[in-house]
Every structure is written in C-alpha cells, then in structure tokens.
Description:
The chain is mainly alpha-helical. It has a domain at 40-81. The protein is 75% helix and 0% strand. It contains four helices and no strands. It has helices at 12-38, 44-57, 59-63, 66-90. Helix 1 packs across helix 2 (44-57), helix 1 (12-38) packs across helix 4 and helix 2 runs antiparallel to helix 4.
Amino acid sequence: MFVLEYKLKGKPSQYQAIDEAIQTVQFVRNKCLRYWEDNKGVGQKDIYKYVTQLRSEYPFVQDLNSTACQQACERTWTAILRFYNNGKGASHLCK
Length: 95
C-alpha cells in the first residue's frame, strides 16, 4: 500500500475539498468493484469504459480530475488481480 503523508496549513474549505476528493475516489473504486462482481467476463478495458460512464452519470465524479479517476480504476484492477493471485497461491494450503 502506498501511503503519502503531508502537513498542511490550510483553510477549512481546502481540507473539505481534499476529503471530498478522497471520498469520490473511494466511490469510483467501489462502483468499479461492484460492476466487476455483478457482470461476468468484465476486463480492464470494460472497467475503464465504466469509469467514463460514471463521469457522465455523476456530476461529483466529473468534477474529479480524469487522472484521479483513471488511478482509481487501475487500483481496483490491481486489487482484483491480487485477489486472484492470492487465491491461486493459497490453494495448496487447503489440501
């Protein structure tokens, strides 16, 4: 997990903007993961297309930077891959 620490001396409105951006990224990640769970055969390109659809559907997602949306999509896909890799590696422990 990548953790970035920083010290800010900002205004309450700036802190609120950061919190809203974090919540929006989490929303996009959760929606992508739910889309993958609900639809069989969804690949990485399908998730990218779904993020584009989310941007047109929700105005607060559209307000988020497109790079941040793409990053949320990529992190979701790596979590899916990690889920599969962990399942393959742990299968020999169950025998």
